[in-house]
Design brief:
Layout (H helix, E strand, L loop, with lengths): L2 E6 L4 H11 L7 E7 L3 E7 L2 H8 L8 E7 L14 E2 L5 E6 L5 H10 L9 H16 L3 H9 L6 E7 L5 E7 L4 E4 L4 E4 L11 E4 L4 E6 L5 E4 L4 E2 L4 E2 L15 H7 L1 H9 L3 E2 L4 E2 L2 H4 L2 H5 L3 E6 L1 H18 L3 E5 H4 L10 E7 L5 H12 L3 E6 L5 H5 L2 E4 L12 H21 L4 H24 L3 H8 L4 E6 L3 H16 L2 E6 L16 E5 L6 H13 L3 E7 L4 H5 L2 E5 L7 H19 L18
Parallel strand pairs: 18-19, 18-20, 20-21, 21-22, 23-24, 23-25, 25-26, 26-27
Antiparallel strand pairs: 1-4, 1-10, 2-3, 2-4, 5-6, 6-7, 7-8, 8-12, 9-10, 9-11, 11-15, 12-13, 13-14, 16-17
Helix pairs in contact: 3-4, 4-5, 7-14, 7-15, 10-14, 10-17, 15-20, 16-20, 17-20
The structure holds fructose -6-phosphate.
Fructose -6-phosphate binds next to helix 10 and helix 17.
């Protein structure tokens, strides 16, 4: 969702800004623009992709060593040339790029209109830069002060960067609720929504905190204050990211690369935590809150989208292994309810990006009610990672494809470790059983590798069903969240309508949809409920539905019934999601490719959803 890039230094800004925007394309956007400072502020922007912006700029003057750039994901106002960022101030002296939403923009806009200002766009961002200019004019303050004063008047979320014709040697940046990273080079600074545009220039970064305002001048130390005018000392961190992680590495799409990275990302997520010799799991993040976690009366998992599906797998794991009651909540619903929470509750917030606005708000709510918040995040330094009391990173590496794949299996891996660890400390699992499961978890990456190889018939299935209008995904127990995740993957990248259901629920409604045109994907690996799933398959078959079944190697019964079969290696029931998800990811990928869809940047979607 919206991407920010900025540069100030001795290099030409334009190529850095354009490359930076390209690195941020994965976040999802519908227009792009740059502002370059060279005696005056030149803004170039248009609807469409960064490549369209480059075409539009063509031979226009781009000579500048200071500039800002933006990819916009429309919220206020349709995606068009006028609403694209950067936005000029009324007299074109300033330009702003903004991520987030200024909630009270309408009242500020009304006030400014009354004072004679004329707006061009429908955006809340333009209101903010007009307000800043108005403050500068009325209070005779410099840009930094005007920004700080203005931010005291706005309600909402923002990451902003501003350039000024009258102060050509600086950038002013600020954040609240939307991420902003400053790369610290030698006499130069790079700004971005995340570290991916920065990593090729410097590993040293400062993550701005909420309500920080930064004054960025080349060859001078960074100055950071809060909006309330308190001085702060910027904390420079070293990035662990490496540039190869941001490239496609020979794959046609990031999504495919990330699907194939799963043996590694799963292993990285348990590496150093799973100790077979000593028969234990050690997770640094759990140590400080060990007592609370062990004695938790209840676990509440909050997340959105795919992370919510991982949370559902977590529910089965924690209840099965550690015997703690679990509720899994959509963060967006949880935050607007009046949830009953106590100090004995543990809230686990799951997020790949660590920036999801609803999850972040749900965390703040839970914190205010005294709960202990444990984060399961992929992005180090992200807002959620910093907002939680403790946590465990997923170590999946950067996920660029908008459709989440390796982050999901990494989340499930970390939740498995947590559930096992709690089971051991609460005495709800025998030593032998614990050893059996961790031994199996240790070899799961090899089984994922095998699943990736053996699911080659997925392409054939994709060819057969690429033009259908609907898909149904059914599973029970641990495979129910897998069914939901399979359906989400398909709809988000191929735009085919897909529903996931618990298999036994089919007869309570979705069965009405079944006819000879309806493909139904069954995840039929369960041990306990195998026969019941077989009955559900029969019910679909009787209505001429087309059956695609994920089965355990060596299965014979379902094979007889299904039109298409994909085998996965035998494993512990609770670890099946780590394998069964793989062919479903591949199925949606191949269907989307065959339908000519933009796999890595599906329409309307954003990678990190920083607005509610
Ligand atoms: C689906 C997908 C989204 C995210 C959701 C939460 O493929 O990527 O559903 O899972 O937006 O995002 P995070 O995990 O970053 O909080």
């Amino acid at each position: 969702m919206c991407g920010i890039v900025g540069y100030i230094g001795d290099k030409q800004a334009y190529p850095i800004l354009i490359n930076g925007l390209k690195r941020l394309e994965y976040r999802g956007y519908d227009s792009a623009g740059v502002a370059l400072l060279n005696g005056k502020v030149d803004v170039y922007k248009c609807k469409g992709k960064v490549a369209d912006l480059e075409d539009f700029i063509g031979k226009k003057p781009i000579d500048s060593k200071i500039g800002i750039a933006h990819t916009r994901w429309a919220t206020h106002g349709e995606p068009n040339n006028v609403n694209a960022h950067p936005h000029y101030s009324q007299n074109n002296d300033l330009a702003i790029i903004h991520n987030g939403i200024i909630e009270n923009y309408a009242s500020i806009k009304k006030e400014l209109i009354n004072r004679g200002y004329v707006f061009e766009s429908d955006t809340d961002s333009e209101v903010l830069i007009y307000l800043i200019e108005d403050i500068q004019k009325n209070e005779q303050v410099n840009l930094f002060e005007a920004v700080r004063i203005a931010l005291n008047q706005v309600i909402g979320a923002y990451a902003i960067v501003i350039v000024s014709k009258h102060e050509p040697n600086l950038l002013v940046a600020a954040r609240k609720g939307s991420p902003l990273v400053i790369g610290v080079g030698k006499g130069e600074y790079f700004l971005a929504s995340d570290a991916s545009p920065i990593i090729e220039y410097t590993k040293h970064v400062v993550y701005l905190e909420d309500e920080d305002v930064a004054l960025i001048k080349k060859d001078e130390p960074l100055v950071v204050k809060t909006v309330k005018n308190k001085d702060k000392t910027p904390y420079v961190q070293e990035l662990e990211l490496n540039i190869n992680q941001l490239e496609k590495g020979g794959f046609e799409h990031f999504m495919l690369k990330e699907i194939y990275e799963q043996p590694k990302s799963i292993r990285d997520s348990f590496r150093g935590r799973l100790n077979l010799e000593q028969n234990l799991i050690s997770m640094g993040g759990m140590i400080e809150y060990e007592h609370k976690l062990k004695n938790a009366k209840r676990i509440i998992i909050i997340a959105c989208g795919t992370s919510w599906h991982a949370g559902l797998v977590g529910e089965y794991l924690f209840e099965d292994l550690a015997r703690i009651p679990v509720e899994v909540e959509y963060a967006s619903e949880f935050r607007y309810r009046n949830p009953v929470l106590s100090e004995d509750d543990i809230v686990i917030a799951i997020s790949q990006s660590g920036e999801t606005a609803d999850t972040l708000a749900a965390i703040e709510l839970a914190k205010s009610k005294g709960a202990t918040i444990f984060g399961v995040c992929n992005v180090v330094g992200s807002s959620i990672a910093r907002a939680t009391h403790a946590g465990a990173f997923t170590h999946a590496g950067p996920e660029i494809g908008v459709a989440s794949t390796k982050a999901f299996t990494a989340q499930v891996t970390v939740l498995t470790l947590m559930a096992l660890h709690l089971a051991q400390s609460r005495g709800t699992i025998s030593t032998t059983r614990f050893h059996e499961i961790i031994t199996e978890l240790n070899i799961i990456p090899e089984k994922v590798e095998k699943t990736l190889k053996t699911s080659s018939q997925v392409k054939e299935i994709a060819e057969r069903f690429k033009d259908v209008a609907n898909f149904l995904y059914l599973g029970r127990g641990y495979n129910f969240p897998v069914a939901l995740e399979g359906a989400l993957k398909l709809k988000e990248i191929s735009y085919i309508h897909a529903e996931g259901y618990p298999a036994a629920e089919m007869k309570h409604g979705p069965i009405a949809l079944i006819d000879e045109d309806m493909p139904v994907v069954f995840i039929a690996t369960n041990r306990g409920t195998y026969e019941k799933v077989v009955s559900n398959i029969m019910e679909v078959k009787a209505r001429k539905g087309k059956i695609i079944a994920i089965v355990t190697e060596g299965d014979t019964e379902v094979k007889e019934l299904a039109d298409y079969v994909i085998e996965i290696p035998e494993t512990e029931e609770m670890l099946v999601p780590l394998l069964a998800t793989i062919p479903l990811q591949k199925l949606s990928y191949h269907i989307a490719v065959k339908r000519g869809c933009n796999v890595d940047q599906p329409r309307n979607l954003a990678k990190s959803v920083t607005v509610e």
